[in-house]
Specification:
mainly alpha, MFS_trans_sf, globular, Growth Hormone, Chain: A
């Protein structure tokens, strides 16, 4: 899956690096909150709620998702008018500053109810940032790509998620290993949040050097005005809904680890060592990275929808065995369960950028892709950890969670049947060549 040779120049490589590094930083910031929601925040900020503290702590992970569509609309509107690059810099700054401030919020024992309120407000800002980030990064990579490599190029902003998960779990595991349990809960967990300062600087340096999307520049030179938001839903609302259902199935499954649920369950219910659990998730993130790249690469050969469907079938097959292995309460079983879990997840994530970019014409592409993604995250990942904990508490078994995730996977599989697969379609016919058989947008 090389990015060198074959007419791929330095600017192309710079673009995919900027997309990957930026999303890595964004999701590192996003995930350290989700992981700490299960390991730390219930006791530090929501302890007054007693036995419901953990459920509410997980609910704050989901609250940010409610604001993702707002971020998607705002960034999409501005991105379709002013460009993808400016929005990527703005979303990176918003996410980074919010994360650093989280590391400075005193516990509820110091400032009372103000502590969880401030924490939730900062989480909402993270949600606004995440809603606008993905669409810009995905489109910048895909719109710079040669038509025959859009799947692979589009997979690079996608792997920012497993790399961010790898980095978040790695930093937390290192801090956990270097501190006592009491020190980690008292101040150690704040270190990963404060380290975001360094990542912001790195991300800004990289993204500021990337050229604007050539497809967007062509539209801007032509003087085309962005289509009103209402027209997007009137003309392509069906595709927005199908895209949302497709991602809902992926994100519900993914947020068992990215949302911190598996980590919390393994540590608090199965009494496994926290550092070993975080290391297990890191191993699965590495597999997720490889399978996501493979999914993007295969999408250029098999088509985007076929790779999605293969991933959904793998997800469906693995749901019940996954929880059976986790419940063995050993680290080797947990590692195996998570690594196999990540294969189907990557196949339903790698083709996403290319598929969503080819679903919408240039003048509404940022909004269409970003809103479909954001709505899917609300329907799927937003409250998946909360639903999982409520199901386990109510039924007394984790297999009920497997049933829930299997149901979400079936929804995504059905949605994929109705999505047109148009690899190589001109993203902007005057500027972008495509295969002769590809039909342009009307």
């Amino acid at each position: 899956m090389p990015l060198s040779g074959g007419g791929i120049d330095r600017e192309h490589r710079r673009v995919v690096l900027a997309a990957m590094v930026g999303t890595t930083i964004e999701w590192y910031d996003f995930f350290i909150y989700a992981i700490c929601a299960g390991l730390v925040f219930a006791g530090q900020y929501f302890a007054a709620l007693g036995p419901n503290a953990l459920i509410l702590s997980f609910a704050t992970v989901g609250i940010s998702f409610v604001f993702r569509p707002v971020g998607a609309v705002l960034a999409g509107q501005l991105g379709d008018r002013f460009g993808r690059r400016a929005m990527l810099i703005a979303t990176l700054l918003l996410m980074g500053v919010s994360t650093v401030l989280m590391g400075l919020v005193p516990a509820a024992s110091s400032i009372g109810v103000a502590a969880p309120v401030i924490l939730v407000l900062l989480r909402i800002l993270q949600g606004l940032s995440a809603g606008g980030e993905w669409g810009g990064a995905a489109l910048l990579a895909v719109e710079h790509a040669p038509p025959e490599r859009r799947g692979l190029y589009g997979a690079f902003p996608q792997i920012g998620v497993p790399i961010g998960l790898l980095l978040a779990n790695g930093v937390l595991a290192l801090v956990s290993a270097l501190t006592t349990p009491g020190q980690f809960l008292a101040w150690g967990w704040r270190i990963p949040f404060l380290l975001s300062v360094v990542l912001i600087v790195v991300g800004l340096l990289i993204r500021s050097r990337v050229a604007e999307s050539p497809v967007f520049e062509e539209v801007r030179r032509a003087g085309s005005a962005p289509v009103p938001l209402g027209a997007l839903f009137r003309e392509r609302g069906r595709l927005v809904l199908l895209g949302a259902l497709l991602f809902a199935a992926n994100s519900a499954v993914g947020y068992m680890t990215t949302g911190g649920y598996v980590q919390s369950y393994a540590v608090k219910s199965l009494h496994l060592d926290p550092a070993a659990v975080l290391a297990s998730v890191m191993a699965s993130a590495a597999v997720w990275l490889v399978s996501t790249l493979a999914g993007g690469w295969l999408a250029d050969r098999w088509g985007r929808v076929r790779v999605y469907q293969a991933g959904f079938v793998l997800q469906l097959i693995w749901m019940v065995p996954f929880f059976a292995l986790v419940d063995l309460a050993t680290i080797p079983a947990l590692v195996l369960a998570l690594m196999l879990y990540a294969v189907g997840l990557g196949f339903t994530y790698g083709p996403q950028s290319a598929l969503y970019a080819e679903m919408f014409p240039t003048r509404v592409r940022y909004r269409g892709a970003a809103i479909a993604y954001a709505l899917g995250s609300v329907l799927g990942g937003a409250f998946a950890p909360t639903i999982a904990e409520a199901l386990r508490t109510t039924t007394g078994t984790v297999y009920s969670i497997g049933g829930y995730l299997a149901g979400m996977t079936v929804i995504g599989l059905l949605a994929s049947v109705f999505i047109p697969d148009r690899p190589g379609i001109p993203l902007n016919p005057p500027a972008t060549p495509a295969r002769p058989e590809a039909k342009p947008f009307s």
